[in-house]
Amino acid sequence: MGEMEQLRKEAESLKDQITAARKAVQDSTLQEAAAGITVVGRIQMKTRKTLRGHLAKIYAMHWSTDSKLCVSASQDGKLIVWDSVTTNKVNAIPLKSSWVMTCAYAPSGNLVACGGLDNMCSIYNLKGKDGNVKVMRELAAHTGYLSCCRFISDTEIITSSGDCTCILWDIETGTQKTVFAGHQGDCMSLAVAPDFKFFISGACDFTAKLWDIREGTCRQTFGGHESDVNAIGFFPNGNAVITGSDDATCKLFDLRADQELITYQDSSIMCGVTSLAPSMSGRLLLAGYDDFNVNIWDMLKAERVGKYMWKLYIPLENGRKVDPAEDSEGSSRVAVGTEH
Amino acid sequence: MTINTLAKGGLHREQMSCFRKMEKVIVAMQDPDMGMKMRNQRLLITVIPHAMTGQDVITWLIQKYHICEEEALHLGEMLVRYGYIYPLKEPRCLVLRPDESPYRFQTPYFWTSTRWPATELDYAIHLAKKNIRKQGELMEYEKERYSLLHKRINHTWDFVVMQAREQLRASKQRRKADRIVLECQEQAYWLINRPPPGVQNMLDWALERPNNFSTRVPLNSDYYKSEIETSRRALGRNRVKSSICLEGFIKYSEQYQNHDPIMQGCLPSNPWISDDIAYWTMNSEIVPVPTRLRVERWSFRFMELLSDAMGRREFMTYLEKEFSAENLHFWQACEEIRHGESSKIVEKVEDVYKNFLAPGAARWVNIDSKTMDKTLEGIKRPHRFVMDDAQMHIYFLMKKDSYPRYLKSDLYKNMLAKAVVPQETKKSVFPFMRRQRHSSPSPAQASAQAAEEDGRAGTNSAAGSHF
């Protein structure tokens, strides 16, 4: 036992040294740095489109890169591709397992993916020869539920799972290329860096990790949250990670300073963050919460500049019931009515 | 998922905060001074005290919270769906009707937050009471559930029947009006907690997350050894000052502010408001003339130029004039290896070697000898990232050398001058001329739809879409 105690002490001491090194570069606070910039006015959000058709809770949605199409996954066992401008359904794909928790749109627009309690990621080809949408691949290797998936290209996809790992798959062969292990709790979400060389994952071990896709290793780990990290995204310039957690806060972790620089919290907010998305310039952060609200934060001043209560439309059977802001990214386009 | 709000063993925490909010509204509604005016409602031959009409509810919400009718209707709906207010006529239809339909407040005893989750035992007692009272007139689904429960909790069935009988006996001693009220309250409670098949379960259970992660990873010496190694590596990394990082974000936001549609709006118009997709059409991948904002972005960062198909095309034209186009061709070929099909990697790597790296190659690229050696070695066993180092070298070469000169060139300046600044479209004078968009019917509902549509006329709210 003596050896393990020594190892434990060494690990602790190294962690303390890292904390000290991080503190050493803290030469400015957000208030000081952002003192000179102009305040953003209040942002009003209005519903512009309502997409009706799902029969049960919608667990996830993802926009296509063309800003018009999006895909949503519902526990009624359907994946629907919408033309959000006309509100028409372009495709309605029946799923083998109705317990779907995530979906993704490939940047090319050719493929969509989904997965959930079946522990698999199913890839569907939208541009099949005969016009039918069919399952192209079923990626099975995770031993836990699929919480999130994101395409890198038509040939590669990254998935995160309740088995605490993330996997990079080769879609063509349907095999796993790299397993990213290290988290000590269910991985809840992931986001790919703008240069496609890294990705970040948030997990129920209260941390976010930055992974090198090529090396398969964890480059950096960011702690500080007091509960599960549910949502994660990159700041548009790729230099920072934004996380949303059950502890009711969002945090910005800078990759170069290797630490948390900003926390977005308010004493009146007491429920967890379920999803988030920054605006194109990085000035605004839209975050969806458990109480059906979307809060808009001024990212540089760490102040709330807007709020939107998600609406449930009558009648419910035909309506779109949205799980509290699972689609915050979508809400910035659907509810706000502006780009991105 | 709310912090510090554990309810009944930690379940359904995510919805508790909403219930608290709804309860605040309900309490406000019953305030003796500022609350709603109640009246007696006639139900068949009995008079029910303390009831209100649907319209009353909506009016009160509008006045109290200064919201519009649509939002008040929505809020009132939620109060009904979660069981805080229940309808007296048509109790199975949990809808808030903005008319004279009578509603009543649910007693706090039956509030969702206080009695959650509803237990099997309670449900069994409820069904047993109903069965005894109405002698086998349970609804079909209730009959099924009743027999299922009978099997499942058979061991306490005597207790169930006894309780049911006791409760019925106690209720017989109440005044008829009270008895009806209690029955209504109980029924409303069970409609929410055990909805009939086909009706959405408002209290549906989210995924349970076992958070005892400390038991998943064994904290043994192997674990600590790997932690030590990771920490040593992490300690050695270079850390940038926070002031510089924050400065970076501020500069980025400022630079892109005019390009951010949420901040600045978009020209010619916001497609979500005007239903005109010109904004997207003008900015699609290949257009005859790009917009000014787009061309401006090419000067922000090299990656902006390279990730835009038109930007790449323009840059290529420039490089051709400078006789260094092979660099961009090489970079593009490497991208295709990195992101393309695995089966084509070997073939593509060979092509790249032949065209760009081999001595005397047609489009030979200038890479330093160290990187060249490493790459040539790697080509012997080609994989997706084999060209990474060489690609990075050429990337930086272009970024430091050709890119800044391109931005100063006439080619770029002309592009910027020619670029389109879309005119803002004037808002149309007749708003009702906007096209109604018809959404295609849900494939799952083809048959049910026809029947429902008749019942739904007039309840679809406007967002420009309906079945």
Automatic annotation (TrEMBL), chain A:
Q: Which PROSITE patterns match?
A: WD_REPEATS_1, WD_REPEATS_2, WD_REPEATS_REGION
The WD repeats are found at 51-92, 139-179, 180-221, 222-263, 273-307
Keyword hit for Transmembrane: no
Matching SMART domains: WD40
**Is tRNA-binding there in the keyword field?**
no
Q: Which residues form a coiled coil?
A: 4-31
Record keywords: Coiled coil, Repeat, Transducer, WD repeat
By sequence similarity, the record places it as follows:
Belongs to the WD repeat G protein beta family.
Name listed for the protein in its UniProt record: Guanine nucleotide-binding protein G(I)/G(S)/G(T) subunit beta-3
Which species expresses this protein natively?
A: Ameca splendens
High-level lineage: Eukaryota, Metazoa, Chordata, Craniata, Vertebrata
Q: Give the gene that encodes this protein.
A: GNB3
From TrEMBL, chain B:
Q: Does the keyword Electron transport apply?
A: no
Provide ranges: composition bias, Low complexity: 439-450
Instruction: Please state every residue range assigned to the domain named RGS.
Output: 301-416
UniProtKB keywords: Signal transduction inhibitor
| UniProt region (Disordered), positions on chain | 434-467
Extent of Polar residues compositional bias? 458-467
Give the SUPFAM superfamilies listed for this entry. Regulator of G-protein signaling, RGS, Transducin (heterotrimeric G protein), gamma chain, Winged helix' DNA-binding domain
Can you give the residue ranges of the DEP domain?
32-115
Q: What is this protein called?
A: Regulator of G-protein signaling 11
